[in-house]
Amino acid sequence: MLGGSLLLFIICFIGIVSFPVEAALKKYQFDVQMKNVSRLCHAKPIVTVNGMFPGPTIYAREGDRVVINVTNHAQYNISIHWHGLKQNRNGWADGPAYITQCPIKTGHSYSYDFNVTGQRGTLWWHAHILWLRATVYGALVIMPKEETPFPFPQPYSETNVVLGEWWNSDVEVLVNQANKLGLPPQMSDAHTINGKPGPLFPCSEKHTFAMEVDFGKTYLLRIVNAALNDELFFAIAGHNMTVVEVDAVYTKPFTTQAILIAPGQTTNVLVKADQSPSRYFMATRAFMDAPIPVDNKTATAILQYKGILNSVLPVLPQLPAPNDTGIGLLQAHYHNIKGVFRTDFPDRPPVPFNYTGAPLTANLETSLATRLSKVAFNSTIELVLQDTNLLTVESHPFHLHGYNFFVVGTGIGNFDAAKDPATFNLVDPPERNTVGVPTGGWSAIRFRADNPVALNVGIKDVDGKWGVQCRCMVYALSSGATHDVGIKDGFCCREWKVTGRIYSTATEGPSALLDAVKQGTCLFVSETVEVVTCKIKLDEL
């Protein structure tokens, strides 16, 4: 009798106890390859992943382990950054070439191996070397844990909306030409929605993304701005959007007719198909703070109610003006906006401009250097980002690798350290991984340095690069262990021979070499196969 009661108790106990679901392993194969693609009556070879433009969507669930093997068949070196993933204590998988890994050479493979911890929502991935991000990008969707609902009404269906740009010419050639002239590269020939510019552009009727909806249903749009340069407005004709998430962080829902999204940012919106069944344009165009619009190209896609014929002409949405910034010197003075109208213009230039310097472009380029700031683990960091853009009218997207941060303040003009902190939002600031610093303005962010790894702060320069070619700051966090985690002099993308085996930092990552060396002696295998002896310690890579 006792045994039967005990057995019944065990069965009941098992029935009511919720055991944790074992994390899944998601594997993907990325083949980086060239493909001929036609847009705007032009065809050209572009770098793609698996022949797709945009590339494939990565799907995972919070808690999953993801392994993505990247094989490079293109003529360029490549690396992939998983934009917005925190990569807790796993910075080697972050992706910036020459910062946390060596680029993947032509004919080589590299496996990115990371866990999705404490994150869910919409992120994205992209190439992190040269300007290959123009075509090498895609969405990264992290679903909540099993049986964990959204904190908003469950949508009927969801769709990725990835915004981008298209150049008729080879982007790498354009960038090299611009660098020689010391000028920004030419603007894109079109914007795109899921790689397609839409019917407002020539030869683009068939290159139009369409989304079919059922009347009365609610849809979740996962919107990614994968453009290289432009902040973009996005709207759907006749339909409101309810913003429920930004940069994979749930937000207090609010309804709007249009959103502004900076390069690198993501926004999730709910859209209810509650209008008269017809065809409606989804549209995007650039925001640039200039008196005269300089980039007034509008990409379109179609939201089409089920049962409506394709012959019905779509309705265009009302987008904000491309230069929708209602502020000037007199307005700033009248409204007492600080930092725009100032009386402290210097009598002498703080830094003299070398008008006779040769070459002239040397005066226009930023310094090619990496700056290191060591901060204590778990300390709170505040950064004030001041835009001093003189050559272009674009905002400066700023992305922090390995972290989310809180945007506690933003403003037009120069930051006033004595007065502006009083305006900071310290109650409910938005949490993001990317912020668009206004043209001629500033943004203030705060984050907790709790991810002990060297991290890359990506600042898109005037020429569009994201922390590439050492145009970045690097934060090294003290981990509290016997050595600091940081970037050491001599970090190299080479092959090393240890106890008879060759380890390649380009294909296996520095961590494999660290495991093998353990403060021992190794041999460096040069490109000419000459072997030299070197000493490697654990804290030297």
UniProtKB/TrEMBL annotation:
Subcellular location: Secreted, Extracellular space, Apoplast
Domain Plastocyanin-like: 32-146, 159-307, 344-454
Metal-binding is among the record's keywords: yes
EC assignment: 1.10.3.2
GO MF entry, a single one: hydroquinone:oxygen oxidoreductase activity
Signal sequence region: 1-23
Alphabetically ordered keywords of this record: Apoplast, Copper, Glycoprotein, Lignin degradation, Metal-binding, Oxidoreductase, Repeat, Secreted, Signal
Enzyme type, top EC level: oxidoreductase
Recorded catalytic activity of this chain's protein: 4 hydroquinone + O2 = 4 benzosemiquinone + 2 H2O
InterPro entries per UniProt: Cu-oxidase-like_N, Cu-oxidase_2nd, Cu-oxidase_C, Cu-oxidase_fam, Cupredoxin, CuRO_1_LCC, CuRO_2_LCC
Cofactors demanded by this protein: Cu cation
GO biological process, one term: lignin catabolic process
Keyword set includes Cell wall biogenesis/degradation: no
GO CC annotation: apoplast
Similarity-based family: Belongs to the multicopper oxidase family.
Name of this chain's protein: laccase
Organism taxonomic ancestry: Eukaryota, Viridiplantae, Streptophyta, Embryophyta, Tracheophyta
